[in-house]
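Objective 1b. Sequence-to-structure analysis of Rubredoxin.
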Amino acid sequence: MKYVCSICGYVYDEAKESAPFSALAESWKCPLCGAPKSMFAPEKKEESVKAPVVSLPFDEDMRKLSAGELSALCSNLARGCEKQYKPEQSQLFRQLADYFAAATPAVDNADMALLAEKLQSDLSEGYPALRSAAVENGDRGTQRICVWGEKVTNILHSLLARYRSEGDALLEDTEVWVCSVCGFVYVGDVPPELCPVCKVPDWKFEKIERRATA
């Protein structure tokens, strides 16, 4: 039996390993991307299935974006321009992203439970709706965004769950790295040689500096 990581595609082949997948400890993690055991699923044969069409409500589809959403949008556009070797356009989008980020008001009730709820909403509602619209319109670029975005959101959701369970111990004596192209987050001493999501080399990862402690 083979089990596949939903983040990076790593395959745990029981025929080649020393233990069946079910015997692995719940704390076991993917050796490539660090995803928890719960992110693995039995390997399935690929089937051609047309995604169901999910239409967004008109007021949701046409609503104005908040400053925070505009910041995220411009940040993603900056990364897209960087991948297309357009440094000037990338820099302009980064400036816009920083401007909107500074204009984003603080969230009074921000906590980990609310963040977990938002991430789960993206996974269960946001990405399926976006993917459906992209498939319906033959938009392959947006379909790729869905693939990358969903994987990054999955790893964020699992890391948040680990932090809520382990607390600061999760980050002791280690580093946090973020892929500057797709946003994949990795906890470890050094970044992976290749990003498990977008496959860029390790030098594309940025180390997140810790806050100074009093």
